[in-house]
UniProtKB/TrEMBL annotation:
Keyword terms of this UniProt record: ATP-binding, Helicase, Hydrolase, Nucleotide-binding
Listed transmembrane segments: none
Pfam families given in the database record: AAA_19
Binding residue positions for ATP: G114, G115, P116, G117, T118, G119, K120, T121
Region (Disordered): 587-612
Name of the molecule in the record: UvrD-like helicase ATP-binding domain-containing protein
InterPro entries: DNA_helicase_UvrD/REP, P-loop_NTPase, UvrD-like_ATP-bd
One term under GO cellular component: cytosol
Superkingdom of origin: Bacteria
Length: 759
């Protein structure tokens, strides 16, 4: 039997009524133990045009609902099998639209967007096998990049089962040198943005250059006496030698030295009678004056040195980043300089910057491949994308992902920006220009969508759908072929101290029959252990699948930074049989349209709702939400906000962070607490006064009284009396970030550790 990868089989599998080729009939058989259990005809082509007789049919022509019905019926058995943690090949049941992508022969970047469980990973791996089988690439030409080690474990057996061996699969973060430290979120955000590439380039350009040149000039020229001859090169010539042409910095450095020595040698020959002195060039090159000027205008640089200076020298960073990063972003980058270079705590983002710098300095880079397959590509940061592009200068990639599942440091609005980074890279000019300039109009990429979901039961998808719409309103939500049944989604709301126990016992209930169970928990929850299930964080379950999933405290996952909502969507869509939610704090509003209604019987959402003038109130709300959004763009603000959120989680509370008006609302032992956070400059009284006003507006917008209200500052208030005034005049407590901890009157209550009163 011909292999599925052969052109003939692919042609047979992908034929349609409009383009049948030689295919007359495509019949799918479902067999069991050598017996055909059922079959259906996907494609029936009449023998000659105009011939009637047999019904003419093609899957491509079927109404989608009928098609899904058919698929469901036909794939059921395959879909029903228990998941043992390892992905299988899908050769027997692969669908036409999947195979079309597996065997896509177009050059450039092929982007495959598809919702959870639509078979992107499966398609990517089958494509690797198809590319090799058809000799389009060889083993060593290709690299498959996956999100994490667990994912690689999950897919490990697919390629060997397809008869494909020797292709390298690598976990994304392993592409770069091992990190030695972790940056705070604001620094990570800046370092991973595309603007950082400009700052790095400028960091190199700031070194030496024409400013340094003037120190070596006298009367508008670089001149010295050499072996009795007066040698001089005018400033204008030197500046020409310095002009940055294409090529890496060190090539520029070399070019400057060569041109200078050429000019000096020519000057020597003009001035000296010893015209044919063949050794003179070498002697000029070694002359201390020449070495000094070269080292000064084009100093020797290492990537580590440039990055270290940028991250630890505020003035140097300002020169490189003016007009690119605002003051807050520059402040977010700065850190203390370690005594020795070897002690610098390079983070993952730093390692990627270092790779970019090495490329700028030396032109060299990481190993190159002729084709990359990148899974979960929506989570790449712009700096990671540039780095991957350097690994694949041919611009031939298979990019798999789902924008709605984004949870990385960067959110791509659509696939074009990322694809163009891959499609347009041809080495050097990436560093020379801004991305948008380089790649506008490049047509080296194609976007295709997979729209049928094979993993997640329909009921679970319906449950997750409102969240998907919020996360990526423009991407198509998949239609699930898998029927779930009434038990597919179970939501258990329990007392705070019963959450962990309930999750564990539910996992035990679900396990058995060889079915896999995962308990997915928010960051920082370490107390849950289970013999019956794998316990993992939301970011660890990306790309994986289990028969049953027990998801703990979705609100806590949703509020994780960065991209908590995306993480939650990923976690919700890992199961093939059932999803159980175990929670105490209210579900995120994206998941539960009744959240607001539920809150109505609680103190915050009662008084006055009916008596408001609705249109005026809406206008007020819109205005408030807009200014809150603006505030949240400030890194300092967000860093303070999430430090507090994390402290509240540590106190086993469930802060709500996704209100469009309130920075944080949290039920604690002292009652309902409302927090208004201040960003940069927020420690001065005028800003604090504004925050008091805002807090009152937020309280009004949220519909009622809070038991405790806090204004939260990034550091100690400038005016020592501010806290007293707030407490006495407004009944509001002031707390602030104090190095690594928190201060202020009533801090125990603010952090959810005490039940006393401050007001
Ligand atoms: N044609 C098919 N026939 C049978 N099973 C399929 C088919 N296509 C995909 N599947 C199965 O559906 C499940 C999901 O596939 P896969 O992991 O490739 O989806 P994905 O789009 O990468 O998902 P996610 O984005 O959620 O990680 C796998 O178990 C896979 O084997």
């Amino acid at each position: 039997m011909a292999s599925w990868q052969t052109p003939r089989v692919v042609q047979w599998m992908t034929a349609t009524l409009n383009e049948p080729g030689e295919v007359r009939l495509r019949r799918r058989l479902a067999c069991q133990g050598g017996i055909v259990r059922k079959y259906y005809d996907e494609l029936v082509v009449p023998r000659s045009s105009g011939e009637d007789g047999q019904a003419v049919a093609s899957v491509a022509d079927e109404p989608p609902a009928r098609r899904i019905e058919r698929l469901r019926d036909f794939l059921l058995e395959d879909l029903e099998r228990a998941r043992d943690g390892r992905m299988r090949d899908i050769v027997e049941t692969i669908q036409r639209e999947q195979l079309m992508l597996v065997a896509d022969r177009r050059n450039g970047v092929l982007v495959i967007q598809g919702g959870p469980g639509t078979g992107k990973t499966a398609v990517g791996l089958h494509r690797v096998s198809w590319l090799l089988y058809n000799n389009i690439f060889r083993r060593g030409d290709m690299l498959v990049v996956g999100p994490h080690r667990g994912f690689l474990e999950h897919v490990r057996e697919v390629l060997p089962r397809l008869g494909t061996h020797g292709v390298t699969l690598v976990e994304r973060d392993r592409l770069w040198d091992e990190p030695r430290g972790v940056d705070p979120l604001p620094a990570r955000l800046v370092k991973s943005s595309a603007r950082m590439a400009t700052v790095l380039r400028r960091g190199i350009e700031q070194q030496g250059g024409t400013r340094a040149l003037t120190r070596h000039l006298k009367d508008g020229a670089f001149a010295f006496v050499f072996e009795g001859a007066f040698l001089s090169v005018p400033q204008a010539d030197l500046e020409k030698f310095l002009a940055w042409e294409s090529g890496a910095y060190n090539a520029q450095r070399l070019a400057f030295g060569t041109r200078l020595v050429d000019a000096l040698t020519a000057a020597y020959h003009d001035a000296s009678s010893r015209r044919h002195d063949s050794g003179v060039r070498k002697r000029i090159e070694r002359h201390p004056q020449v070495k000094r000027i070269v080292n000064s205008v084009r100093p020797r640089l290492s990537a580590e040195q440039v990055l270290r200076d940028l991250l630890t020298d505020a003035e140097f960073l300002r020169r490189a980043a003016t007009g690119v990063l605002d003051d807050g972003e520059q402040a977010a980058l700065l850190r203390e300089r370690r005594e020795r270079m070897t002690e610098e705590p390079w983070s993952l983002e730093d390692q990627i910057c270092l790779e970019e710098l090495r490329h700028l300095l030396n032109g060299d880079g990481p190993p190159r491949y002729r084709h990359l397959v990148v899974d979960e590509a929506q989570d790449l940061t712009p700096m990671q994308a540039r780095s991957l592009a350097r690994r694949c200068p041919s611009g031939s990639l298979t990019v798999l992902g789902d924008l709605a599942q984004s949870s990385g440091l960067h959110r791509w609005n659509d696939w074009s920006e990322l694809s163009q980074v891959f499609a347009g890279v041809d080495g050097w000019h990436l560093e020379q220009l801004e991305l948008s300039q380089v790649f506008a109009g490049v047509d080296g990429w194609h976007l295709e969508q997979l729209t049928i979901g094979y993993r997640v039961p329909r009921e679970v998808m319906d449950f997750a759908a409102p969240l998907a719409r919020v996360l990526a309103p423009n991407t198509r939500f998949p239609e699930s072929v898998r029927p779930g049944g009434e038990e597919a989604v179970t939501v258990l709301r329990v007392a705070a101290d019963e959450v962990d126990g309930t999750a564990v016992s539910r996992a035990a209930e679900l396990s058995g029959d060889g079915r896999s169970v995962a308990v997915i928990v928010p960051d920082g929850v370490t107390g849950i252990g289970s013999d019956d299930a794998r316990v993992l964080r939301a970011d660890e379950c990306r790309g994986l699948e289990f028969d049953h999933v027990v998801l703990v405290e979705p609100a806590a996952i949703a509020s994780q930074e960065p991209g908590g909502l995306g993480e939650l969507y990923v976690a919700l869509t890992r199961c093939t049989q059932s999803l159980t939610i175990v929670h105490h704090s209210p579900l995120p509003r994206e998941l539960d349209p009744t959240t607001e209604a539920t809150l109505e019987d609680e103190p915050m959402t009662t008084a006055g709702a009916e008596s408001r003038d609705e249109s005026g109130f809406q206008a007020f709300l819109d205005d408030l939400e807009r200014s809150v959004r603006e505030e949240r763009e400030c890194h300092v603000h967000e860093s303070v906000r999430y430090s507090l959120v994390s402290a509240l989680f540590a106190a086993r509370l469930a802060p709500v962070t996704d209100s469009p008006t309130a920075d944080i609302v949290c039920e604690g032992p002292a009652g309902r607490m409302l927090y208004e956070v201040l960003g940069e400059g927020g420690h001065a009284y005028p800003a604090i006064r504004q925050a008091v006003l805002r807090l009152m507006e937020v309280q009004y917008a949220e519909g009622g009284q809070a038991d405790h209200r806090f204004v939260v500052l990034p550091r100690e208030p400038e005016q020592p009396w501010a806290a007293d005034v707030l407490r006495d005049a407004f009944g509001i407590a002031l707390i602030w970030r104090d190095g690594g901890s928190w201060s202020g009157e009533g801090i125990g209550i603010a952090l959810g550790r005490e039940a006393g009163g401050v007001e």
